[in-house]
Design goal:
Blueprint: E1 3-5, H1 12-16, E2 24-29, H2 50-57, E3 77-81, E4 87-91, E5 115-120, H3 128-149, E6 159-161, H4 162-167, H5 188-204, E7 212-215, H6 221-232, E8 243-247, H7 248-259
Parallel strand pairs: 1-4, 2-5, 2-6, 3-5
Antiparallel strand pairs: 3-4, 7-8
Helix pairs in contact: 3-5, 6-7
Bound molecules: zinc ion.
Length: about 270
Amino acid sequence: MKLLGCLLTANDCYKTKRTIRPKGVMVHSTGANNPTLRRYVQPLDTTPGQEELLTALGVNRNGNHWNRPGLDVCVHGFVGRLADGTVAAVQTLPWDHRGWHAGTGTSGRSANDTHISFEMCEDDLTDPDYFGRAYRTAVELTAMLCARYGLDPMADGVVICHQDGYRRGVASNHGDVYNWFPRFGMDMNDFRADVVRAMSDEDEEEDDDMVYYQTLADVPEYYRTAVDKAVEQGALKGEREGVLNVSEDLCRTLTVLDRMGVLDRKG
Ligand SMILES: [Zn+2]
């Protein structure tokens, strides 16, 4: 899975700075025929790596992306096509931020208070190749989040879609993802099972896909000492609001350098 970071800092939801303790992942799909990530995700002048992100995502010339005030929706991530047509995931809120994605359910409660959320960008819902790639990326993203927050994807109510949330009384009445998955013979039971498989695959194999960490807090414990030192020494430039956008490969390299004592040198 390719995972980019482009926080929607101009969205009113981001500005609330409210956090949650994640207890699950809610999968959404957009309900509109536009599989491109640039439709929803755009960096601003203040976004770290703006130029690289614009190259990767492509430019939205319609001004209708979600990195702006005045919207009542915001999710933690998107799955869709990059400018080159490949399918990737992009993180758009800190994972423990309280998102605006589920509305309120019949119980009066909301999955906004408990669930990390992401949107799968829909196409016209007839392309099995795009569905397969988007589904796979969604599985891998969910597996990563479950691993990070110690969530059991098979436990009741943990990995659910928007419509599941409605049936459970914790989300508004939207059909996603059952408007899409069944067209290709899949449902959320298949999805949960695939997340479990992805998690056990991750345990067994070395993951050679590039992973990026947005902030120092996102950097796993075992790399943190070395990354910390590199930031302290000014070798790794921390950007606005502590955003690093550092790759796992770089973290690994820094850890090796740290073991050699390189990062302890003064001046
Ligand atoms: Zn939804």
